[in-house]
């Protein structure tokens, strides 16, 4: 299971770094995220419940932190997307 991270791991600059299409080769859409779950699993560092965020809080979402191409970035996944990618 992916580890839960401290809220301080999720800031504005790291969020702005996340261009999903450029970094992971797919659009940030549920079907694309699930289809490409292998690459997301490979680069994921951890997550936090997105409602706990100071930067861009969101209900019923997880914020997931990644490291890819020497860059840290994060974006929101719905709870369903998160379960499809990381609980299987």
Label this structure with key terms:
88 residues; alpha+beta; three-stranded antiparallel β-sheet
What would you say this structure looks like, in words?
With 88 residues, this protein is of the alpha+beta class. The protein has one domain (7-86). It has helices at residues 12-16, 20-24, 30-35, 37-43, 79-86; strands at residues 44-49, 61-68, 71-78. The relative contact order is 0.25. The model has no long low-confidence stretch (mean pLDDT 94).
Radius of gyration, whole Å: 12 Å
Tell me how many strands there are.
Answer: 3
Helical proportion? 25-40%
Q: Tally the structural domains.
A: 1
Q: Order of SSEs, N→C?
A: HHHHEEEH
Mean pLDDT: 94
Give a short synopsis of this structure:
This protein has helices at residues 12-16, 20-24, 30-35, 37-43, 79-86, and strands spanning 44-49, 61-68, 71-78.
């Amino acid at each position: 299971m992916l580890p839960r991270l401290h809220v301080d791991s999720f800031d504005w600059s790291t969020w702005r770094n996340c261009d999903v299409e450029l970094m992971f080769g797919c659009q940030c859409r549920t079907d694309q995220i699930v289809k490409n779950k292998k690459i997301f699993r490979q680069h994921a560092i951890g997550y936090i419940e997105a409602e706990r965020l100071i930067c861009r809080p969101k209900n019923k979402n997880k914020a997931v932190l990644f490291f890819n191409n020497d860059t840290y970035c994060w974006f929101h996944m719905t709870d369903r997307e998160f379960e499809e990618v990381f609980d299987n």
